[in-house]
Amino acid sequence: MDNKIGKAIVDRIVRAHQAAEVFRIIVVMPAVPAFAGDLQSEGALGTRAIMEFQYNSINRGGHSIVESLRKAGIPDPARYIGFYNLRSYDRINVSPAMRRAEQESGVPYEAARREFDDAVESGADQYGREPTHARLGDQYERYQQAAAKSGDQTWDSISACYMNAGPDLAAAPWSGSPEAELAAFVSEELYVHSKVLIADDRLVICGSANLNDRSQLGTHDSEIAVVVEDPTPVRGTMRGAPFVSGRFAASLRRQLFRKHLGLLADQRADRPDANFSSIARDPNAYDWGSPADRLVEDPLTDNFLHLWANTARLNTEAFSDVFHNVPNDRVRTWAQYDDFFTKYFVVPGAEEKDKDGAPVQREGKVEYGHVVPDFPGGLAAVKERLGTVRGNLVEMPLDFLIEVDDIAKEGLSLNTFTDELYT
What pLDDT sits at residue 126? Predict the structure, then answer.
């Protein structure tokens, strides 16, 4: 038995192409199918193996979706199918006020944080309402009281700057030196773990199953999913023509698209609204007909497709310039990987060694996820570059290590016997 989902995708696109039909598949998936780190390390062999299987399914290896479409006479498969990841940036609040709060309270920040996390994990209300405070201990309260007296205006998060109607990044207040602020900027992959399929704004499949053999063949992992077809009609357009969607499917798809594109207002975790809660407690609200909703209402118009592609491209370029994140289309060989990533970054928990096994000096390097050292123009240029980011959408780097024959070389931990574990 084979997993025929890839073939079904190819067949559907070929049918649309032959009928001159407007048709589009958008895939949002993780950039790295595991925890981020040094992809060249021995410990990342399993991650590289999964990435190799993914790329061989998407655009390389001889039998992928993209290659099959080209063989079928479709010169530009990207017209019909696109692959994307999600990425974010923020600025860690490590201002002098935090150190003053620690000194005045006698409580390390990490101790207060752990106490708060323990309260949340115990089942308390994670949004700071009364049940949480009833279970929090003395350390958290002492730290909070000291921090409240600091008068520091530094924001705990600047994520609002890339969301709808958010503040100007250049105006975000900071207490401390420019060098400390530059070092506080970080970026990371947003790991897509949700398994959701939305078709034609009418049908939703949501559950635990991935689009791989382990989930789909029925002989590996146990999975469960629900199929939702909401009969409540929503009138709008599709491909510019009148179209009736299902209320649940349409609002879910539009909400996700707006989040990815930065077309939702920033939502603070300590100021929850009805949409933070289960629908069993509060009905989720959606602002039908708002200007932002109109931008994503019809996902098959030229205006929307341009907005989606342009946002992904600009975000990708900004993150690549500032953080040199990998995987990345600028890295097609292992030599380029070293030049783009290894020489600038230290991966936490990884000890670098030379060919003789001696520790490698780390002078001039920063931790992975921080701004690349000696960024031209310094802090002001970083803010200007990141100020172009909207939402979290980035292009999936389909050319990453494309000139490397085997991303994951076979060995004791990767061979024909272990292939089944990774697929």
Answer: 46
Token pair 């939502």: residue = 267
pLDDT at residue 131, rounded to an integer: 43
Residue type, 332: R
330's tokens = 């600028």
Give the model's pLDDT for residue 349.
59
Q: What is the largest CA-CA distance in the chain?
A: 71
In sequence order, the 6+-apart residues with CB closer than 8 A to the CB of 372 are 322, 323, 324, 344, 366
Mean pLDDT of 27-53: 87
Q: Where are the beta strands (DSSP E) in 23-109?
A: 25-28, 81-91
pLDDT digits (tens, 9 = 90+) for 116-166: 877 766 654 544 444 444 456 788 889 888 888 877 788 889 999 999 999
Buried b / exposed e over 3-41, threshold 16 CB at 10 Å, is beebeebbeebbebbeeeebbbebbbbbbbbeebbbbee
CB 207 within 8 A of CB 226: yes
Cα distance between residue 273 and residue 259, in whole Å: 16
User: CA-to-CA distance for 11 and 357, rounded, in angstroms?
Assistant: 51
Task: Report pTM.
Answer: 0.88
